[in-house]
Structure formats: C-alpha cells, structure tokens
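Listing S7. Sequence submitted for prediction.
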Amino acid sequence: MENRISIVYSTRKINPDYIKHLKNSCGLLNPDIIPTENNGEMSLGQVYNQGLAKAKYDIVVFCHDDITFVTDNWGRKLCKHFTRNPEYAILGVAGTNKLVSGMWWQERSSMHGIVNHSDGKHVWTSRFSADQGNKVLPMIVLDGVMFAVDKTKIKHQFDESFKGFHFYDLGFCFPNYLDGVKIGVFTDIRITHMSVGEVNDFWAENKAQFEEKYKDKIPCQL
C-alpha cells in the first residue's frame, strides 16, 4: 500500500496552523487534508461521510480538531499498520473488546489504548492498557478522538441518524464489526487531546438511541 493518507476533520473555523501541524507531523508527502467548517449545521457523521467521499486516498484519518500528534512521522506508522495487518479496516488509539452498553468505557478492564489529555495547563497520560509496541489488537468499537479506515474494506459509512457530535464513532464501528470488518487498536501513535471528555443531554439521547438500535446485539464480547 502506498504511503498516502487523507485527513478529515470538523472545525468551527479553519486554522492554517493546525493544517501545518498535520502536514509536518505525519511524515508523508502531500497528505490530503479535508477540513470542514461546521458550527453545528451538520452532525459529525455527515461531515465524515462527505470527507470519505472527497478523500483522494484509501487510508482516511478522522480526528478531532483539538488533538496534537505527539509521535513524529505518525502517518508513516499508520500506513505500516495497515500494510502489516491487511485484515484490518479500522484502526485507532482507544477502544474496547467488550461492549456492554452505549458507554463504551463502562468495562474498564476491557479498554485498550494510551491517550494523553490536557486541560491547557497540565498534560497527563490515560493508560487504558499496556503498551503494545507495534502490534495491533482486535476491538469491537473505537473512540472517535482519532481513528483511521481503509475505505476499500469498510461495509458501512457513518450513520447519520445520530445527530450532533456523539455516537458517530460507535454508530460507525459497531455495524462494521457486526458485518465482519476487523477493527483494532495501536499504542505506538500518541496524541494529546485538549479535552477531558464530557457527557451531556445530547450524549444521553444518542446513547439511548444506540442501545435501542442494537438491543439484540449488546452485550458483545470478543
């Protein structure tokens, strides 16, 4: 697989410095960067489906606009993961191998991944599992803060019935998983997320919608 990636993200206002960060940190020539200015007019699922359609390359990265990539040449590492693990179609930084509800992190012992967080003053590392080196481990769903897909191998696009900015990730990963698409987590690409992650009423509504939609499939365990 050639070392080419597309990067899709939603943002309130396009920041040239962030585009520069993505280009400089990924370690690849001419990444295809697709930002969408979005102040709530579209759900993340809608933005990501548009990005998927526009992406020039097979490997498409979806990320939040408030993350920084700590690992140099992360794009090269990502492409290597897909090349070395051709059975996988969706790879990310955090996920679970046991889904008991719409709150994917409910079973702490089933979580995998390593992610840095920052409140603007301090940075700390959330180690959901041990460092895997350069291995990929199978998961059921991934957290949407940063993940990538081989668009030639997925069977479902993003589910646009989930409104707003929640459950685009589970609503994408879980139907793909159920239809045999292989999903995995790596720990050798590190990001810092400038957020501690919060739930709200919109999240709760989407959680209820997700659980109703998949009530015959949850709980689910690898």
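Caption to Listing S7: primary sequence and predicted structure tokens for the chain studied. The helical segments are 16-26, 44-54, 74-84, 168-178, 201-213. The chain has a mean pLDDT of 96.
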